[in-house]
Amino acid sequence: MIKKVALSSLSLVMVSTASAFEITGSAGAELRYYLQDALYTEQERTYGSLFLSPEIYSEFNEGQDTLIFKPFYRFDEHDKERSHGDIRELQWAHYQDNWETKIGVGKVFWGQTESIHLVDIINQTDSVESVDGEAKLGQPMLNFSYFSNYGNFSAFVMPYFRERTFQSVEGRLRPPLAISDAIYESSSEQSNLDYALRWQSSIGDWEVGLSYFSGTTREPELITSISQDGNVSINPYYAQINQLGIDLLKVSGAWLLKLESIYREGQSEDFTALVTGFEYTQEGILGSRYGIGYLLEYQYDERDNNFFAIGQNDIMLGLRIMANDIAGTETLFGFIQDLDNESTYSAYIEASSRLSANWRWKLDGYFFSSNDEEDPFFFLRRDDHIQFSLEYYF
Amino acid sequence: MKSFLSAFFLVGIGLVSNTVLAAEIKGDKEAITIAKERKARDEGWGTNEANVLMVLKNSQGREATRELNVKSLEVENDGDKALTVFESPRDVKGTAFLSFSHALEADEQWIFLPALKRVKRISSQSKSGPFVGSEFAFEDMTSYEVEKFSYSLLGEDEVNGEKCFVLKQVPEYDFSGYSYQKVWIDKAHYRVQKVEFYDRKESLLKILTLLDYKQFKDKYWRPMKSLMRNIQTNKSTSLITEEITFDTDLKESDFDKNSLKRVR
C-alpha cells in the first residue's frame, strides 16, 4: 500500500516535473571569410564554426520562482580559443511584487547607447564570440532588486570574476602575439568580491540610470613583457577599480536622445569617458513599408588609445533599415571615424532575416582601417571579414 | 502596443474624465455622442489575458503565424496598459512589448530583447510603423480613447448584418500614419464592426473587419477575429483570439519595466 502510494506520488512528481520543464534554444553554423591575407603566419582565411545554445526553464510557486539553465558551446575549426563553452545562465530567481532576488550565473544589461556600452559592466565580454562586443559571459552573482515609485534599486555581489576571452594564435583579430594569461591586482585574483549598485527610473519622457561598481575591471589593459629567456608575452592586466556611471535617454517625438558617461579610477590613469547622440526614426519611407533609423553618436575617452578603448574622439554614423516585412528583415550600417586620425576608421554591416518560423540567416561584415602603428586598428588592418550564419531556433 | 482586444476598439474610461475633457473633443455633436457611448459601454472591464494567433498573408497567399500572449489592464482616466509577449516565431520568443496608452500625449512604449537582456524605449514615431511585419500599425493596437480623434457623422449603413452609424474620425495625436478613418459602429451595442483607414494622401489603405463578437462578464464585447486587409498591397493579417480570461489577478506592478524582464 505504502509502496503503491509512494510509487504513484513519485510518478506524479515525474509528470509534473516533465511538464514543468521547457526546453528551447538555438543552434547554428557560421562561416567567416577574411578579405585579405593574414598578417601572421598561423592565421587562416576561412573559419567555419558551429554553436549550440539550449535553454532549460522551469517555474514553480505559480511563477514566483523560476530556474533557468542556459549552457553555450561553440566549435571553431581553427581557433582553439574560439572553441569554447560557457554557462550563460544558471539562475534561481524569486519574484515578489516590489522586490526580487536572483542567485546564480546571470546576465544584466545597463545603458542606452548603441555604438559603445560604457556603463554596462556586470558581465564580461565574450570577445571571441562576436566582434561587436555584444556577446557576454555568464556572471556568478547574488542580486537583490527593489522596485518603488522612486525607481528601481538593485544591488549585486559578485564572488567570482570572468576573464575576457581572447583568440588563440590561430585566430584573427588579435595583436601580433596571442594574448596569454591574466594578471590581477587583487591578491584574491578571480575570487575578489566585486559589488555594484544601480538605480534606474522612467520619469516621463526620460529614462535615467545611475550606477556604481567596485571590483575587478572588466576591461583589461594589455601589458607586454619579456621574460628572462627572451620570450615576449602580452598579458591582460585586471586592476581593481571604482566606477561611477550615468545613462540617460529622452524620447522626443521621432527622436531618442542618448547619453552614457563613466568616471573610473584604479587603472593606469583615472579617467572620464562619454558617449552621446541620437537615433531618429522615420516610418513609411516614400509611402513604402520601410522604416529608417538614423544614428549618430559621439565617443569621447580621456585616455590615450588602448587596445580595448578606442573611442577617444570618434564619431559613429549609423543607418538602420527596417523592411517591416513578415521575415523581420533588418540591416544596420555603421561607420566610425576617428576624428584625431583620418586614416583610422571602421565600418560594419549587420543584416538578418527569417527564412521560416524556426530559421534565420545573418550576414555581418566588419572592416577596419588604420595607417597609424600606435592605433589598435593597425593590428586589425587586414582582418576585414564577412560572416554568414544560419541559425535554427527551437 | 496595446491589448489587441481592448485594441479592438472597446475599453472604457472614467465618466469623470469624459466630462472633464468633453469640451476639448472636436466634431459634430451627434458623432461625439456616439463615440462617447462606444467608450462608455466598455467601461470597467478591469483586466484580461489572451492568447492570440496572428496569421500574416502576403499577396501570393503565403502564410506565416505568430503566437502572442497579451495581458491588459484598464486604467481609469487614461489609456490602458498592455504587455504583449511573443511565443513564436522562435527567434523572437520572449520578446515583449510594454505600452502605456494615453489619450493625447504620446504613448509610452518599451521593448525587451531577451538575447541582450535589454529594455529599450521606443520612439513615438514608430506609432505609424507596422507591428512585427503585420498589416496592423502600432497605432491600430492602442486602446481607443475618445480624445484621440475629432468626429463627424457620415450616415448609416449595414455591415456584418448589423445596422451601423458611420463616423469619420481624424487623429488628433502626433505621428499618425492616417489622414482619417471611417468607423462603422453598430446601433445595437456600439461595437465597432468595420474600419477603413485612409493614408496621408487620403487614399484608402486598409480595411479592418471585426468578427465573432463574444460577450464577457455580461457586458463587454470582444471580437474573436479581426481581419486587416491592405487594399494597396493585397496583404492581410488576421488576429484570432484563441483564449481570453477576464478578472485575472493582474496588478499595476505586472505592467512595468521589471515585469518585461520577467516574462516568459
Structure overview:
- The complex is a heterodimer of chains A (394) and B (264).
- Chain A contains two helices and 21 strands.
- Chain A is mainly β.
- In chain A, a hairpin with a 4-residue loop joins strand 2 and strand 3.
- Chain B has 264 residues and is mainly beta.
- Chain B is built from five helices and 13 strands.
- Chain B has helices at 4-7, 15-22, 29-40, 138-141, 257-262, and strands spanning 47-57, 63-73, 81-88, 96-100, 108-113, 118-122, 149-159, 162-171, 178-186, 192-199, 204-216, 220-230, 236-246.
- The longest helix of chain B is centred in the first third of the chain and has 12 residues, at 29-40.
- Chain B is globular and about 50 Å long.
- The interface between A and B is large, with 51 and 39 residues.
Average per-residue pLDDT of chain B, rounded, comes to 88
> Which runs of chain A of at least 5 residues are low in confidence (pLDDT < 50)?
9-19
- DSSP E strands of chain B, number: 13
The greatest inter-chain interface is formed by: A-B, 51 and 39 residues
User: Mean pLDDT of chain A, rounded to whole units?
Assistant: 92
